[in-house]
Every structure is written in structure tokens, then in C-alpha cells.
Amino acid sequence: MRVGAHLRQDENPVATAEDLGIDIFQMFVTDPQSWKKPQPHPHADEIRESAIDVVVHSSYQINVASLNNRLRMPSRKAVEEQAKAAAELGAIGLVVHGGHLKDGEDAAEGFTNWRKLFERQEDKGGFGVPILIENTAGGDHAMARTLESIERLWDAVGDFPQAGFCLDTCHAWAGGEDLVGLVERIKAITGRIDLIHLNNSRDEFDSGRDRHANLESGQIDADILAELMKTADAPGVLETPADGIAADLEYLRSH
Ligand SMILES: [Zn+2]
């Protein structure tokens, strides 16, 4: 079982990961609220050479499904740039949220846009790292909130070997998916889970709200989270409040 945490951008991530005794860490390669192009990381060599795994989370405003050219085109470019930066750090993948459409837009076009992301990049030789599509918590027009939408998404991207899946447990809960047996139900669709974002939820089931909590202090029974981690056979990354990370890691190791 490989477990770790998302680390803050301003840290020397390998040193912090060693202090925490974790097997994997997640990081951003640019300001996650911006479209800024990633710059070479000051600790790139250490990150690449370390035995501790790294995964990169892409910036938040990316929405490759969008039907709006002025959002979709910079999103594609940002995924390409951030995947390249991730590859330079030796990352196991780049996490990208499923994205969403607007009221009245045709979901089929959003799934096609996901397909086009991989198609276009294949012509350029691929992304350098797998793109781990993450399920999201809210909205009625999300590309990866419900199992039904994930199934349609996978019909569009499933034949690209660089299309991977990241399961966020808080998002699944808040998105209204029963967590018991969820790993099996997702794998039946995607054939793979590459990463788990292990988070509890401050809000109730199907709330649509994305507020993470430490493992033993949210609305989800912590045993269920440990069980998902066990059955997924994938590395797990905590995106929980920093003060409780040490206790969360301890909980996982002892369960
Ligand atoms: Zn997440």
C-alpha cells in the first residue's frame, strides 16, 4: 500500500515527504488558479531521482470538455504543458478534473471534446504521462460525477492507453455515489484506477459540495475509506486539512 499527501507548492517536496515518511506526494507545477506556463522546478533533479513517487495535479480552471473555444483551447494547452512538466519530474501522471458543461449544452459534445484531447495529442506523440481523469462532486452537467457519466466518458476515451482514472472519495460521496463496492463498479467501467484521492467529506451524501475533511472527522465512515484503499490496488493521496495529515497517515497505516 502506497500512501501520501498533497504538498504545498512552496515546499521542498522531497524533504517534506521524507519527514512525513510517505511513499507518494502530489504537487502542482504552476499556480493552480492561473493559466501560467509551468517553470522548471528548483528541486526537479531531487524529485525525479527520489524513490518517493510523485503525481501532479493540474490547475483548477482547466475544462477540456467545455464547448466554449475560449475556455477549451487554453485548457488543452495547459494540459499539454503541465503533462510535459510532470514528465520532466518523473511523475506517474497528471490529474485533470472531468470538467462540466453549461445548462442546455449537449453532454455528447463534452465527451467528444475529451476524446479529441487524446486524439490530437496522439498525433504529437502523446502526453509524456498518463492523464488521470478525476471524478468531481457537484453540478448537473459534470463529465465525471456519476457512474453513468463516467461510463459515457469512457466510451469516448477508453481506447487511449494514456487515459487513466483518479477516484476522489469525497467527490464520489458528495456526488451521490454509494462508496461500498465503488472500486469494483468503477473498474468494471474503466478497467483501471490509477490513483485514489483519500478524503473525507464535511458535507452529507449527495450534497454536491466539495469540502474535504480529515479521515476520522467527516461524514464518511473512515473504515469505508480504508476499505476502498485496500481494494483499489492503487496509490492513495490525502488532500485533507494539513493539521490532520499525520493522524490520517497513522490511521491508514494501522487499518
Ligand atoms: Zn481530489
Please describe what this structure looks like.
- By secondary structure, this protein is α/β, with parallel strands linked by helices.
- It has one domain: Alpha-Beta Barrel (TIM Barrel), CATH 3.20.20.150.
- It is 38% helix and 15% strand.
- It has 9 helices and 10 strands.
- The chain has an 8-stranded parallel barrel with strand order 1-2-3-4-5-6-7-10, surrounded by 4 helices. A two-stranded antiparallel ribbon has the order 8-9.
- Strand 1, helix 1 and strand 2 form a beta-alpha-beta unit.
- The termini are close together.
- The structure holds zinc ion.
- This is Deoxyribonuclease IV.
- It is an enzyme of class 3 (hydrolase).
- It comes from Gordonia hydrophobica.
- Its cofactor is Zn(2+).
- Keywords: DNA damage, DNA repair, Hydrolase, Metal-binding, Zinc.
What's the domain count?
1
Strand content: 5-15%
- Output the CATH class name: Alpha Beta
Radius of gyration: 17 Å
Mean pLDDT: 95
Percent helix, as a range, is 25-40%
CATH superfamily: Divalent-metal-dependent TIM barrel enzymes
- Uncertain runs are none
CATH topology: TIM Barrel
H/E order of the elements?
A: EHEHEHEHEHEHHEEEHEH
How many extended strands?
A: 10
Sheet with the most strands: spatial strand order: 1-2-3-4-5-6-7-10
Task: List the keywords.
alpha/beta, TIM Barrel, two-stranded antiparallel sheet, 9 helices, 10 strands, globular, binds zinc ion
Summarize the structure.
This protein has 9 helices and 10 strands. The longest helix is centred in the first third of the chain and has 20 residues, at 69-88.
